[in-house]
Design goal:
There is one protein chain. The protein is built from nine helices and no strands. By secondary structure, it is an all-alpha fold. Helix 4 runs parallel beside helix 6, helix 5 runs parallel beside helix 7 and helix 6 runs antiparallel to helix 7. It is elongated.
Amino acid sequence: MKALKNIGFKKHLMTAISFFLPIIVASGFLLAIGNMTGGANIESFKDGFSFSDALTTMGGYGLGLLPMIVSTAIAYSIADKPGIAPGLIVGMVANGIGTGFLGGLVGGYISGIIVVLLVTYIKVPSWMEGLMPTLVIPFISTLLAGIVMYYVVGTPITWFTEMLTNYLGNLNTSSLLYMERSSVCSLRLTTAGRLIKWCLPLFSRSFLKGFMNR
């Protein structure tokens, strides 16, 4: 298992953060502004909608992609291009079974590690080597990672996500304000940290409300 020892879990998590942070910021602002101006999710495009509805819907779409984005980013960081296919598909599985962002996080590591193990230990004839990156590795890694997500880690992650969602949904305004201020105080004053520290009080309550109602 020498291949696993060289995997830096923190490094891949930071790669995922660099991928999804701009999406969270953009989607969060859209969702918050849309909610604060009375927007709602567009259920039928043909029935008409307001500008606020468009903002709310765009923000919801962006946040809905987070499980796929974080899973793909982590798998890509671990296994390079062969990790993209299983990372994306397992991220969609995580989103489909309700594990949310946490499921995407776990699915990305599972996908990337499986790809690394397959590349390291699967040996094929020379005539088949061209099929490894386009057929063998994507198919087998997606199959294995998907089975693990569905049958092993999916249920406990779903349970934990629902518990956390219910807890956050039951918080009153004062509790959310306390969490908001605690989060702001704990941020390091990097460039990204200063930006989030400035904008978090602006939209965090509206963002949480809209996100929890999705």
